[in-house]
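User: Design a sequence. Structure:
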C-alpha cells in the first residue's frame, strides 16, 4: 500500500509550539482523507526546531467508486421541490431519475448517483495546500514581497521548502503536484543548518529519516529526549554526580536542538549558599540547563548540564565556557537578591502589599491578606489547627511576593517565603503554610496535610472564589481567566484527601456577608453548586461512575430553599462516602433487582402521570391497602414504611452501608408485587392508591439517592 511523506521546513518553530503543531498536522491531513473515504493503516507526526513531518502509511492508490441512491419528492410534487431535488442530485431532468413505488407512501423519485473513485495523488494535491494555508498556528507571520498581497501565506516563521511524496515501497514514489505561495512541493530538503547544510534528495519515509540522521538531524522529538536524558545521566555519573531530572525542561530543550550534544559546566561552590530552588530556577530560566546533585543526596553540586546543537571542533570547551560565564553572572544576581531579602523581616514587607492591586473590584493584596487571615482563624478549629498560628501564617503568606528573589523568579513564590520564615525563626508549621497554601496547583500536585497549611490553603481558595462570585466574574464556557476552576478543584482535593467535615455553604455565606456587598445566600448556594460540579469531575476522573455521582449530588440541590434537612448532601466528604456505598450496593443482586423494580415503578408512574396530567405524590391509603385482599400489596406497603424509616435513620447517622441494607429488604416485596398485582386496576380508587404506593417506593429510594439518574 502507498505511503505519504510530507515535510514542511521553516526558518524556526518555537519549542513550545512544536508538539501541538505536529499533532495538528496529523489530525488535519488524516481527517481530510477520511472525510473523502480514504482510510489508512497508521500515521505519525514529528517535529524539530525547523520542520514538521508526517508519515501516513497504508493509503489506497485510488478511492472507491461510489454508488448512492438519493430519495426525492413524490411524483406530482410541486415544481420547487422537483427542481431542488434535481439540483442536489446533479440531474439535468427527471428522465435521469427512476420512479419507485412504496405501498404506503406511493410513487416517488430516486436518483442513482455514481462517481468514479479519484486517484489519491489528486486528492492529496487538493487537500494539502488548503491545510498549509489555513494551519492553526497560535502566532504566525507573513514575509517577503508576497506578504503585501491579500491572502498570502501565514506561517510561524518563513516557510522554506515542502517535501511531499506518495507511492508504494516497491516503486519510485510520485511527487504530490502542488505549490503554496510559490513554494513548489518536491523531494529536496536540507539537514542541520551548520553541520550538514547541503541539499538532500528524499523519496520514502525510511530513506528520509536515515538521510536526516546522516545530515545531523534527529527527527523524532522523543528520541532526542532519550539521547539528552541518557547522555546527561552518563556524564553526571562519570563525575560522581546525579542529574536532577526535569521533564518540562527536557521537553523544552529537545525542541531547541536537532542534533543534541550534552556538555557539563561548573560554577563556584560559593554560590551553593543560595537556596537550591533559587539556583535551579536561575540556571533553568536563563540558560535552559539542568542542575546536578551529589550522588545519593539532595545536596546540589556546583555543576550543570547544558545541551548544544553543535559538534564543536574543540570538544565544546568554548560553548561550555560561554555558558559558565552567563551562569556565574546570573548566580551573582541571585546571591545579591538572597542576601538583600534576608535582611528584611517578612512582616515588615506587609505595607508594600497595600500598593499592589489584586483586582480593581476586590482591592489590594494587603486587603486580601486581611480577609484570608480572618478566614484562616475561623477555619482553624474546624480542621484541628491552632487559630493563632493559622492567622500568623496567613498574614505572612503573600509577603514573599515583594522580595527581590520572587520578583526575579515568580515561580519561587511560596518556597522562598518558607525559607525566609524559617530564617527569622517562625514556627515550622507557619513556615510550611507559606509555601503550601498555594497547593495543589494542578491535578497531580500534592495537597497540604499539616493543619495550619490546610487552614490557610482553604482560606486562600475560598476568598478567591467568594470574591469573584461577589463581583460576578464566574467562569464561562472555556474561559476562566482567574483560574477559578483550579481553585475549586484544589479546595475539593484538600477536603476529600484530608477527610474534612466542612459545611462550605455556611463558610461561603459568612465570608460574603462580612466582606462583600452582595446577596450572600444566593452567592453561597451558587458557589456550592459550582464546587459540587468540580467534585463530580474529580470523582469521574478517579473512576467513579458518573450516573452514581449524579444520583447522589443532585439530591437537594434544586434551590436554596432546600437547605433544611439536606446538609448531608452539602458535606462533600459524606457525599463521596454515599457514592461509594451506593456503588457497592448496586454490585449486589439485591441492588440490581431493586434498581430494576424501581425503574419499572418509575416508568409506570411517568406514563400514568403524563396521561392523567398530575403527579401521584400523596401517601398511599394503608387502610384501603389492608382491605384490598392482596397480600403482596400489603407486604410491600409495610416493607416501604420500615425500609424508609430505617434508611432515613441510617443516613442521619451517616451509616450509608446501613441505609443500603435497609433498601435491600425491598427487593423481595417489590418483585412479588409486580408478579401478582395489577397496578392499573379497573377501580379508579384502587388504581390511584397503587400508583401512590409506587410513588412511596420512589420516595424511599430518595432517602439514599435519586435512582432515576442511575443507568441500567
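Assistant: Done.
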Amino acid at each position: 500500500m502507498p505511503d505519504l511523506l510530507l515535510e514542511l521546513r521553516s526558518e524556526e518553530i518555537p519549542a513550545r509550539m512544536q508538539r501541538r503543531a505536529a499533532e495538528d498536522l496529523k489530525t488535519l491531513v488524516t481527517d481530510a482523507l477520511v472525510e473523502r473515504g480514504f482510510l489508512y493503516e497508521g500515521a505519525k507526526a514529528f517535529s524539530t526546531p525547523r520542520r514538521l513531518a508526517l508519515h501516513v502509511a497504508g493509503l489506497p492508490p485510488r478511492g472507491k467508486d461510489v454508488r448512492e441512491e438519493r430519495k426525492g419528492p413524490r411524483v406530482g410534487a410541486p415544481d420547487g421541490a422537483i427542481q431542488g431535488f434535481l439540483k442536489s442530485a446533479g440531474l439535468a431532468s427527471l428522465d435521469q431519475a427512476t420512479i419507485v413505488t412504496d405501498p404506503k407512501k406511493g410513487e416517488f423519485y430516486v436518483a442513482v448517483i455514481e462517481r468514479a473513485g479519484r486517484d489519491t495523488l489528486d486528492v492529496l494535491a487538493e487537500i494539502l495546500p488548503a491545510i498549509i494555508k489555513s494551519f492553526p498556528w497560535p502566532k504566525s507571520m507573513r514575509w517577503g514581497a508576497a506578504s503585501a498581497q491579500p491572502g498570502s501565506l501565514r506561517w510561524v516563521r518563513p516557510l522554506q521548502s515542502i517535501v511531499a511524496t506518495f507511492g508504494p515501497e516497491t516503486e519510485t514514489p510520485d511527487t504530490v503536484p502542488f505549490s503554496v505561495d510559490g513554494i513548489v512541493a518536491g523531494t529536496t530538503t536540507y539537514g542541520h543548518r551548520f553541520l550538514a547544510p547541503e541539499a538532500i534528495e528524499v523519496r520514502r519515509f525510511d530513506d528520509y529519516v536515515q538521510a536526516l540522521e546522516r545530515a545531523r538531524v534527529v527527527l523524532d522529538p522523543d528520541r532526542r529526549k532519550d539521547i539528552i536524558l541518557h547522555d546527561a545521566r552518563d556524564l553526571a555519573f562519570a563525575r560522581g554526580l546525579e542529574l536532577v531530572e526535569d521533564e518540562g525542561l527536557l521537553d523544552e530543550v529537545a525542541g531547541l536542538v536537532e542534533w543534541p550534544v550534552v556538555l557539563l559546566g561548573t560554577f563556584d561552590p560559593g554560590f551553593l549558599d543560595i537556596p537550591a530552588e533559587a539556583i535551579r530556577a536561575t540556571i533553568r530560566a536563563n540558560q535552559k540547563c539542568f542542575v546536578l546533585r551529589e550522588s545519593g543526596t539532595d545536596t546540589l553540586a556546583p555543576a550543570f548540564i547544558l545541551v548544544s546543537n553543535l559538534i564543536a571542533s574543540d570538544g565544546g570547551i568554548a560553548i561550555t565556557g560561554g555558558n559558565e560565564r552567563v551562569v556565574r553572572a546570573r548566580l551573582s544576581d541571585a546571591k545579591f537578591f538572597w542576601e538583600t531579602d534576608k535582611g528584611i523581616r517578612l512582616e515588615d514587607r506587609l505595607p508594600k502589599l497595600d500598593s499592589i492591586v489584586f483586582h480593581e473590584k476586590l482591592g489590594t493584596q494587603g486587603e486580601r491578606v486581611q480577609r484570608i487571615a480572618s478566614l484562616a482563624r475561623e477555619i482553624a478549629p474546624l480542621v484541628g489547627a491552632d487559630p493563632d498560628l493559622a492567622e500568623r501564617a496567613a498574614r505572612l503568606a503573600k509577603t514573599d511576593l515583594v522580595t527581590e528573589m520572587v520578583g526575579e523568579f515568580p515561580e519561587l513564590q511560596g518556597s522562598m517565603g518558607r525559607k525566609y520564615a524559617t530564617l527569622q525563626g517562625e514556627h515550622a508549621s507557619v513556615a510550611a503554610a507559606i509555601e503550601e497554601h498555594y497547593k495543589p496547583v494542578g491535578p497531580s500536585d500534592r495537597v497540604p496535610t499539616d493543619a495550619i497549611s490546610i487552614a490557610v490553603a482553604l482560606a486562600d481558595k475560598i476568598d478567591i472564589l467568594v470574591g469573584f462570585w461577589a463581583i460576578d466574574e464566574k467562569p464561562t464556557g472555556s474561559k476562566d481567566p482567574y483560574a477559578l476552576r483550579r481553585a475549586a478543584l484544589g479546595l475539593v482535593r484538600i477536603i476529600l484527601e484530608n477527610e474534612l467535615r466542612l459545611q462550605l455553604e455556611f463558610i461561603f455565606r459568612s465570608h460574603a456577608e462580612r466582606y462583600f456587598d452582595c446577596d450572600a445566600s444566593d452567592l453561597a448556594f451558587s458557589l456550592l453548586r459550582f464546587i459540587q460540579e468540580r467534585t463530580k469531575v474529580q470523582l469521574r476522573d478517579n473512576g467513579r461512575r458518573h450516573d452514581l455521582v449524579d444520583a447522589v449530588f443532585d439530591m437537594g440541590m434544586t434551590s436554596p430553599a432546600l437547605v433544611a434537612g439536606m446538609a448531608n448532601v452539602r458535606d462533600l466528604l459524606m457525599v463521596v462516602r454515599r457514592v461509594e456505598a451506593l456503588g457497592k450496593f448496586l454490585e449486589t443482586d439485591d441492588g440490581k433487582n431493586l434498581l430494576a423494580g424501581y425503574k419499572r415503578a418509575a416508568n409506570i408512574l411517568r406514563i400514568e402521570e403524563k396521561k392523567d396530567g398530575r403527579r401521584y405524590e400523596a401517601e398511599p391509603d394503608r387502610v384501603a391497602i389492608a382491605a384490598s385482599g392482596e397480600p403482596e400489596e400489603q407486604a410491600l406497603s409495610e416493607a416501604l414504611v420500615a425500609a424508609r424509616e430505617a434508611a432515613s435513620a441510617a443516613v442521619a447517622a451517616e451509616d450509608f452501608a446501613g441505609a443500603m441494607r435497609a433498601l435491600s429488604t425491598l427487593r423481595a416485596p417489590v418483585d412479588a408485587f409486580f408478579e401478582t398485582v395489577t397496578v392499573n386496576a379497573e377501580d379508579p380508587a384502587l388504581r390511584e392508591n397503587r400508583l401512590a404506593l409506587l410513588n412511596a417506593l420512589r420516595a424511599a429510594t430518595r432517602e439514599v439517592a435519586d435512582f432515576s439518574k442511575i443507568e441500567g
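DSSP finds 26 helices and 18 strands in the chain. The chain has five domains: 3-61+119-214, 67-115, 231-321, 349-582, 588-709.
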